[in-house]
Structures are given as structure tokens and as C-alpha cells.
Amino acid sequence: MTGDARAVPVPTAVTRPFWDGTKAGELRIQRCDDCAEHVFHPRAHCPACGSSRLGWTAVSGRARLSSYVISDIPAPGFADDVPYVIAIVQLDEGPRMMTNLVNVPPDPEALPLDLPLEVVFAPRGDQVLPLFRPAAEART
Ligand SMILES: [Zn+2]
């Protein structure tokens, strides 16, 4: 399967600022103007206080590994090369995000929980995906 056959995200009115951010090389998530909670995934109301006053902010792109699975099953449209790592990472700002890990062996020995990670941006079609790799201090 070629890269052209992979699924490309389609921004909606709610998610467009997120995708505009990845194109600009920034990880942008929502932040509540009323309670200051960082929010991901994009939505209309703050999950902490219910406010609809959610703004957008660029975050650090730093995270820690919360959970992962190493998949040996090709996922047409999403992942061609097996095995690959599907991960849930916890952003330093709080929210968790599902993503793929790159620049790391798909091997539990290389994937300790709480591993420091940093975002990298991977073009796909006319969009750019946020993926994560071990942070500089974790790469030896
Ligand atoms: Zn709030």
C-alpha cells in the first residue's frame, strides 16, 4: 500500500484549529477560559466545569508514555509497516492523546511506562499528524 492510500484526517469546525496547528509545527489544544483546564480532544464544552469558553493554546509537545500496544496486524489506511506502536501519551499539560510512537523499537524493553516523549509532525496527504518519539534526554 502506498502513502497515498492512507487515511487523511478531515478537519471539522471544532477540530480545524488543532489541524491548523500541526501544519504550523505546533501542538495546539483547547484551554478553558474559566477554570484553566487543558482539554483534548477538541470539543464544545469544558469537561471539568462545563464552560463553553474554550480557547486554543500551543502546548509544549512534551508527554509521558501512559500505555501502549505493539500491533503486528496491518491496519489498511493507517499503518502499513508492522509491527508498530499505538500509544496513549499524557501531555505535560494534563490531557491524554492517542498517537503512534516513532523512532523507537517496537519492543517493550524500549518502552518503559512514563518514558519522556516529544511530539514530531508527520505529513499525511494535505494534513500533518502529531506523532511522538522519545524525548532528547531519553535517547542515549
Ligand atoms: Zn473549565
Automatic annotation (TrEMBL):
Pfam families: OB_ChsH2_C (PF01796), zf-ChsH2 (PF12172)
Residues covered by the ChsH2 C-terminal OB-fold domain: 56-121
Coiled-coil spans in chain: none
Chain ranges of the ChsH2 rubredoxin-like zinc ribbon domain: 19-54
Transmembrane segments: none
UniProt superkingdom: Bacteria
Name of the protein: OB-fold protein
